[in-house]
Structure prediction request, 401 residues.
Amino acid sequence: MKPLRKLLDNLKPNFTNGGALEKYFPLYDVFENLFYSSDKRTFGSVHIRDSIDLQKVMVVVWMATFPAMFYGMYNLGFQSLSAFQEIGSINKDDWQFIFIDLICNYDPKNILDCIWFGACYFIPIYLVTFIVGILWEVVFAIVRGHEINEGAFVTTVLFALCCPPDAPLWQVAVGISFGIVVAKEIFGGTGKNFLNPALAGRAFLYFAYPVHWSGDSVWVAVDGYSSPTILGIGAQEGLNGIQAQYSWTDAFFGSIPGSIGETSTLFILLGLMILLYTRVASWRIIVGVLLGTFLTSELFNFIGSDTNPMFSLPFHWHVVVGGFAFGLTFMAVEPVSGSHTNLGRWYYGILIGIMVVLIRVVNPAYPEGMMLAILFANLFAPLIDHFVQERNIKQRLRRVS
Prediction:
């Protein structure tokens, strides 16, 4: 790596103060930070020094997505190759088959075939998301004259993992553009956005292009093949309909159709363990979401309904279907758009848990509720923190007086 370090050192004067390319320093900075940590350090007794910085936090979150990512590619391949086997033919209309045909034997029992098939669909989505997302970050960094923030790396991978496997790439580009530009950059960039950018982009695409982002035919990369999600089945047939096709174990391990990174609760939990161990994620939000989900689902189970089968869906099913586990692990705990006070994190998490069940059960037209529940809670997070801070101030004043 010494030649690379030497090359970067030789180029740096051109991008720093007085250099011919000073305006484009953010471009140099992003490449340098890909390979090296910042050499800036805090000194002096009045500062708090810590071994972790924003770059390391983002790298931890990025790496925590790997278990769900790689399993998601496998499961996409398994679901698609099983569908080909079921219908007795292979539809090769998609351009991805140029690469799939190189090494794939179309055997759903072959792990390598499944991973390669899934990768040929996921990697283009991720590349488009990454390139477009970083491009917007570069544009705003150059205009504002600041460094490119590593948050874009996490936003792009989370957005890509939320996508249906066969999502049109131009829509993927539009979605990540909306998430980064409208939900983050126009409010000042990283640290100032009040909505989760990845979820905002995903929600925009859901309402703008529902045909490609919802329904029964978008979750398996086989043209014309219908495979409803568990929540879709539950909205129509309830728990009995779900259990007729899938077991709880299927849902927990992820042998079900769905968005690329959202199917396996088990592999998502591996990522959650990393985030909790490194203290990147707040355990208060995690427990709050689970508590709100448990109480609300138990309430609906107790009330019951003769016309709405989702009333009967129990807590242990809510947590393994749809985007619940993925949203809980990577979206709800996002530090910028969530609550910042410890007490506020409890209220924030409970609000998400209540809303996700409420949306899933009371609004059967939209069976997946985690995305909207988190965005809804994002709107209330500043208000929650405001009241918690006011409460703390009053308690301290009473103690002083």
